[in-house]
Amino acid sequence: MDESEGIDAGEARAIRTRLQAIYDVVPVGITITDPEGHIIDCNPASETLLGITREEHLSRRYDKGWEIFDEDGQPMPPERFASVRALTEGSEIRDQLMEVRHPDGRSVWLSVSASPVLRDGIGVVIAYVNVSELVDASRQIQRLALHDALTELPNHTLCLDLVDQLIRSARRHDEQVAALHLDLDKFREINETLGHGTGDHLLKLTAARLRELAGPNDVVARFSGDEFLLAAPGGDPGTLARQVLEVVATPVETARGRIVLTASIGIACFPEDAGDAAELLRHADIAMTRSKASRNRHSFYNADMGRQVEETLNLARDLDGALENGDLQLVFQPQFDLASRSINGAEVLLRWHHPQRGWISPAEFIPIAEKRGMMTAVGEWVMRRACQQLHDWGRLGLKLPGRLAINVSAQQFDHPDFIDRTADIVRAANVTPESLEIELTENSVAVDPERATQVLHAFQEMGMGLALDDFGIGYSSLTYLRQFEVHKLKIDGSFIQKMVELESERTIVATIIGMARTLGLRTLAEGVETAEQADLLAELGCQSVQGFLFGYPVAADEFAREWLGKPAQKEPA
Ligand code: C2E
Ligand code: CA
Ligand code: CA
Fold first, then answer.
1. From ligand 2's centre to the CA of 78, what distance in Å?
2. Considering only CA atoms, which of 256, 63, 252, 231 is closest in space to residue 158?
3. Where are the alpha helices (DSSP H) in 270-306?
């Protein structure tokens, strides 16, 4: 008997009755499994929530026979179920959102919590509530905010996001993405002469025609008024443009007779004309304007590119050779503990000495390298050389206090093998991961937070430091900060440089420092140039600093002499 814990049989019966009543009436589904995952009990609410009978339910296992989808509409593999994870991880999983498809085809959104019990023959207890209304409402809000009400196409904001996704996947598959910016000709006149009702009808019709022409992976969006965008990976953009013009020009019968719409199209392609979604859309728009001006029905951004763009292309070509010719170099900038003013780390920065143009700033050539898809190669070169330098210093008996921070670009971070390749480089150079720190911008981690969480976790496991660079100018999202295992926020230099004069900037810096403290993160202020800035930062509780006031980026040898106490050939000042 289980009435052994100091309660008598009557009391036990009363407790059981009460529990049974709760079990039977709560609108919360409850499923109980044995330690092997066979379902051994369920309450009445589970029948409606899961759309199956008690008998059917009891014949199942917790990981088989369910049709469950995640928030992105993807089938959820059983190892991600809260119930399965609760058992394998041995801890409670709370509030997992899943869409459960019933045998009759209907589906409900459930928020599922699961708790491992692991005694008295029980494995996990799974509890779930219906949150379909909540999910519907939030989707509705998103839909309204991201779609054009008339045509139901994505609006500019969503379009940017979708094109960004196309570009990311194109990068992985080495494909191009064409963006066609379409503007209907003389639409205002049509609207005025035929009335807005007909105007709206024509816009809806155009939207439908574009959608029909487009492939399932293409993006079709409506910007303001009579402007549309079609973005398509792969394929020949010129052909696509002609097809678009053709379907748009299919005659339409209206109350006032037949109408033939014409349009102008501007085309820009990733990666030739643009490195990211915003730039791609901007360039397609510019090409469209030129198309209108020249009365060409479609124009490529390329064809209209001026001298400036040519120069960029030359630079890009030269950059190809720079890696081999040894024209790339590293410099090292020290970082300091603000209170003690002692060195507590360094950042590696890339330099390019161009045979004709002299020194070129990374701010200028890194975007080009990104566009040309070269940043993975360049980034790995930096990583390899930086590790080698640490190793060489070590052999000379010189130790860098703290970590050596290495910048990682979004493209490098996006590479599927990023973790493995970094680990290989670190291992090959024979340095400890603890002596390194990865600097990432928020933009590289914010796009695919789930993957970023995994990558950052892997680095954390390896023992590397993780810093969020240029903090304050990106999303600055609290959710991400809590989700990602970063150690340090690098407060962007633009705030530091204005913080003495402007209260607004001071407030931002103070807020970042305060937030970092709450989250247990370290702070480093970049670009500190004056003693006033340093004093103010100390007052606000910032821990570390980096900037011209304390030390310029210098070549390895000079860095070793100046900051690592390398004894040799120091010139008397
Ligand atoms: P960042 O990561 O924010 O690097 C700090 C930049 O601020 C560096 O410019 C540095 O020289 C400059 N700086 C340091 N102290 C001061 C100061 O007191 N005042 C001012 N005005 N500037 C200061 P740099 O070397 O031109 O680098 C520019 C950007 O290029 C870097 O910004 C980083 O985003 C990128 N970058 C540089 N090297 C690499 C690299 O190896 N890989 C990647 N992915 N990006 C790099
Ligand atoms: Ca940096
Ligand atoms: Ca920075």
1. 40
2. 231
3. 277-294
Is the minimum distance from the CB of 379 to ligand 1 under 6 angstroms? yes
Q: How do strand 227-233 and strand 436-441 relate by DSSP bridges?
A: unpaired
CA distance 50 to 70: 16
Q: Is the CB of 247 under 6 A from ligand 1?
A: no
Q: With contact defined as beta carbons under 8 Å apart, do 319 and 352 qualify? A: yes
Residue 439 CA, ligand 2 centroid: distance in Å: 6
Angle 365-350-548 (CA atoms, 0-180°, nearest 5)?
A: 110
Q: How far apart are CA 308 and CA 497, in angstroms?
A: 30
Whether 492 lines ligand 1, by a CB cut-off of 6 Å, is no
CA atoms within 13 A on the CB side of 455: 24
Question: Ligand 1 within 6 A of 529 CB?
Answer: yes
Indicate if ligand 1 lies below 6 Å from the C-beta of 364.
no
Q: What distance in angstroms lies between residue 520's CA and the mean position of ligand 2's atoms?
A: 21
User: pLDDT of the chain along its 573 residues, tens only?
Assistant: 444 567 899 999 999 999 999 999 999 999 999 999 999 999 999 999 999 999 999 999 999 999 999 988 999 999 999 999 999 999 999 989 999 999 999 999 999 999 999 999 999 999 999 988 888 877 777 777 788 888 999 988 899 999 999 999 999 999 999 999 999 988 888 887 788 888 999 999 999 999 999 999 999 999 988 999 999 998 899 999 999 999 998 988 887 778 888 899 999 999 998 899 999 998 998 888 777 766 668 888 874 454 455 566 677 788 888 888 889 999 999 999 999 999 999 999 999 998 888 888 898 888 778 777 788 999 999 999 999 999 999 999 999 999 999 999 988 998 889 999 999 999 999 999 999 999 998 777 876 778 889 999 999 999 999 999 988 876 566 667 777 889 999 999 989 998 999 887 898 899 889 888 888 999 999 999 999 999 999 999 999 999 999 999 999 999 999 999 876 554 444
Q: How far is the CA of 419 from the centre of ligand 1 (A)?
A: 23
Which domains, ranges and CATH numbers included, belong to the chain? Answer: 9-130 (3.30.450.20), 149-301 (3.30.70.270), 322-563 (3.20.20.450)
> Best of 319, 349, 382, 471 to mutate for ligand 1, by most ligand atoms within 8 A of CB?
349
Which ligand 1 atom is the nearest neighbour of the CA of 361?
26
Q: Which of 217, 213, 271, 268 is nearest to 242 (CA)?
A: 213
Q: Using omega within 30 degrees of 0 as the cis cutoff, is the peptide bond preceding 271 cis?
A: yes
Q: Is the CB of 195 under 6 A from ligand 1?
A: no
Instruction: Give the number of the ligand closest to the Cα of residue 405.
Output: 2
How far apart, in Å, do the first and last CA atoms of the chain sit?
90
